């Protein structure tokens, strides 16, 4: 198999998931990987720059050299959901299908259907051509098949969830503390500004509460364009700096490995009030870490997050405030939900998901 995917750095959900799925020692076939990551940080993703064009050209040249020599049974790549990304996918698929027995794409997100419907006719045509030429398209949950309803036949779709890394299952949260962890781009789309808007109200209710954030600040969204238009920096200044609660925030960027595990183990509550998700790796990592989860009912999350964890209405400050207050009020509830979440995360243990992945790559679409 040849995989043409981002592995990081920088790291976000797709890079982490790809790295876990493509552990060569656990896969029953020979694997050749071209790591398509090239950005300096996650804020650069989706931006058309000279450096991005040059890096993508190098990746494409590496693929042109590799494919004829390998002649893979399977070519695997991640689908895009932006106009520029669709063009890149179209080029890659045309190249790969000339040398590969099968082409399998992974749709990592929950807004492909919306993107398709809102695209211009040219982008729609390129997307349709590319998606239909794939032998199989993998989504991250059964519910996420719906985003391709009326666009692709159901037999072409398979399900491979995100994998939970082994090391998170051994973490031991301190439920006696009130430490709220946010992991994701510090952007409007991930609900970061929503959390900032309610932070001072949480501090009033719980004077000992602290907030830890892991992720790059993204001021301008390149992928999700239907979200409210506001400045992340302006919201930070208005709701955190002006209210004098900046000392309650501990912010990290580009964190992975042991440092990331240490941050997760220091938390007692996880929050991600996103406007859009596929199958959030951060939520899955929080579940495996035995943290209670406060998130929105988007993408696969209603299928993944166990019962009892409070879901928040998308974009609603009061809903987020009450959900976080409920969990912050009781250490017993935090412990109960955390253990339930860890039990639920075992369904997605990395070893189990790799077996599913290997089966789906070669599954017949007839």
What this model shows, in words?
The chain is 41% helix and 13% strand. The chain has 2 domains: 175 residues, 3-Layer(aba) Sandwich (Rossmann fold); 182 residues, Rossmann fold. The protein has 13 helices and 11 strands. The relative contact order is 0.14. It has a 6-stranded parallel β-sheet, sandwiched between helices. Strands 9-8-7-10-11 form a 5-stranded parallel β-sheet, with helices on both faces. It is globular and about 60 Å long. The protein is α/β, with parallel strands linked by helices and 366 residues long.
Give the ordered list of helices and strands.
EHEHEHEHHEEEHEHEHEHEHHHH
Instruction: Trace the largest sheet across and list its strands.
Output: 2-1-3-4-5-6
What sort of overall outline do the alpha carbons produce when their principal axes are compared?
globular
- The portion of residues forming beta strands comes to 5-15%
Task: Round the mean pLDDT to the nearest integer and report it.
Answer: 93
How is the main sheet built?
6 strands, parallel
CATH homologous superfamily classification of the largest domain: Glycogen Phosphorylase B
Q: Please give the CATH architecture of the largest domain.
A: 3-Layer(aba) Sandwich
When the domains are counted, the total is 2
Number of helices: 13
Poorly predicted tracts of residues: none
| Straight-line N-to-C gap | 21 Å
Rg over CA atoms, rounded to whole Å, is 21 Å
Q: What class do helices, strands and sheet pairing give? A: alpha/beta
CATH class of the largest domain: Alpha Beta
Helix content: 40-55%
Query: How many β-strand runs?
Result: 11
